[in-house]
Design a protein that fits this description.
By secondary structure, this protein is an alpha/beta fold. It contains eleven helices and nine strands. Helix 2 links the parallel strand 2 and strand 3.
Length: 285
């Protein structure tokens, strides 16, 4: 039996992940009281059980001590009982925004308010997150990409290194993306904006793409950047980083940066090791 525990920060997408696993054929149970989890596992693990895939949602709740859940997980590990754990996470500001939009009450906020509840929950889950097999930061993660990653892990048997890479093109005139981890300036390349027949097009259009990539410097830039990322990414994974935002900028964010961001995305996609998204922030401006 494949047994998956789904936990994480409230508002980070646990319910979404559970629904996706259910669509994959997992028998999903959520909000089961901790004292019943052990009995639930025993029932499922009996010989002749027809259930082969189970996903169990585990929440931090005000009406029960989560240390009991931690003891349960540690006990399963000591018995070498096979299970996998997904931890759903998101930036505090994103969680606050989601809660305000949904008007829901945070489960452990109490009288301290939303921010205090998030802080308390993060502290409660600190050790659990460290031991998770898969960590998904949904701050800027598209639902489609989350589904692709879960499919790759639980249907296709692919490897997972707990890192989602987001490639973003942008225009410096509109500001550097605030969530960027790595920023690269490609304004050293000739600007298609000054060519009449290319000005109104974008880097996703073949004439602009071919023009930008016709310069040897563009290919050399991509080669050197790929080498750098080949070194950086495994070290980011080793240090526990779960999301990497690579921003590529030109003047207006319509031509050079769009082409090179697309090319970088294609190169990373061929490696097939990480979840990937590409976003052209200023292409339509």
């Amino acid at each position: 039996m494949r047994f998956v525990i789904v936990t994480g920060m409230s508002g980070a997408g646990k319910q979404t992940a559970m629904k996706m696993l259910e669509d994959m054929g997992f028998y999903c149970v959520d909000n089961l009281p901790v004292p019943l989890i052990g009995k639930f596992i025993e029932l499922l693990d009996t010989p002749g059980s027809e259930v082969s895939k189970v996903a169990l949602g585990l929440d931090v709740r005000a009406d029960q001590d989560f240390t009991e859940a931690e003891r349960l997980l540690n006990g399963l590990r000591e018995k070498e009982y096979p299970f996998e754990m997904i931890f759903m996470d998101a930036d505090d500001k994103v969680l606050i925004k989601r809660y305000k939009e949904s008007r829901r009450v945070h489960p452990v906020a109490g009288n301290g308010g939303l921010e205090d509840g998030i802080r308390r929950e993060r502290e409660i889950l600190r050790n659990v997150k460290k031991k998770a097999d898969y960590v998904f930061d949904t701050s800027n993660l598209l639902t489609r990409v989350l589904k692709e990653e879960l499919d790759r892990i639980f249907l296709q048997g692919g490897a997972y290194e707990s890192l989602i890479i987001r490639v973003v093109s942008f225009g410096f005139k509109y500001g550097i993306p605030t969530d960027a981890d790595l920023v690269f300036d490609v304004r050293f390349l000739p600007n298609p904006f000054y060519i009449d027949e290319l000005k109104a097009l974008s880097g996703n259009d073949a004439p602009v793409h071919d023009y930008v990539m016709s310069f040897p410097e563009a290919t050399e830039f991509l080669n050197r950047l790929s080498e750098l990322l080949h070194f950086l990414i495994p070290n980011y994974v080793k240090e526990g980083k779960h999301q990497l935002v690579i921003a590529i900028g030109c003047t207006g964010g319509r031509h050079r940066s769009v082409t090179l961001a697309g090319e970088l995305y294609s190169r990373l996609e061929q490696q097939g090791k990480h979840g990937l998204t590409v976003y052209h922030r200023d292409e339509k401006l």
